[in-house]
Amino acid sequence: xxxxxxxxxxxxxxxxxxxxxxxxxxxxxxxxxxxxxxxxxxxxxxxxxxxxxxxxxxxxxxxxxxxxxxxxxxxxxxxxxxxxxxxxxxxxxxxxxxxxxxxxxxxxxxxxxxxxxxxxxxxxxxxxxxxxxxxxxxxxxxxxxxxxxxxxxxxxxxxxxxxxxxxxxxxxxxxxxxxxxxxxxxxxxxxxxxxxxxxxxxxxxxxxxxxxxxxxxxxxxxxxxxxxxxxxxxxxxxxxxxxxxxxxxxxxxxxxxxxxxxxxxxxxxxx
Length: 271
Prior knowledge:
By secondary structure, the protein is of the alpha/beta class.
């Protein structure tokens, strides 16, 4: 049985949300992979690859002499990943349906990466230990994850936006998932036997009428809603999900407010 429990679903709307998320976060992820030393000729495994955004970043970095393997449990997302890679002319990446814990390659990897996967893992240490076992000696593990325990409020204050982020935090806490997964990365690396972790916290801040942040925020909550309701959490403070993105936009624009995302921690360490 999978030890990662992706709580946001596996439908077309969620796959579109992942693509929207990638348009915002890919520059941060690429910087992390470059800092970690992902480069030409390397063999890279992308855990929980979804629609393949991180896999494609890695594929460009390793070049035609390198190889990237992306694994995920959602066959629909893998189909999208294959199409996206083909459309982008990336022949050095392949995708396979597999649970991250049970995946057993024929060859070890130079790098293993995972974006926003630990936060969906009840036992994140086990997954980091698995990444250690999949690496060659000297190989690098790279994780980038969210921390809902630290919420940077908007300025000027935006009550609707704060209510949504409080809902994120409460949901992950009640679901038994690590709401502080990002901040755990350093500790997890040490516990899993890695050396000299390098971790940084960062997050984009945006605003204005044309920002994609409002839709991303609303669609993330929409993907959570079935589980939120199943856990008995009240959504009264959020209102109609179908108008949430527009109301978040109107709130930010009318107040000339910013919109910080959740804290994102990126870290890497070597076997």
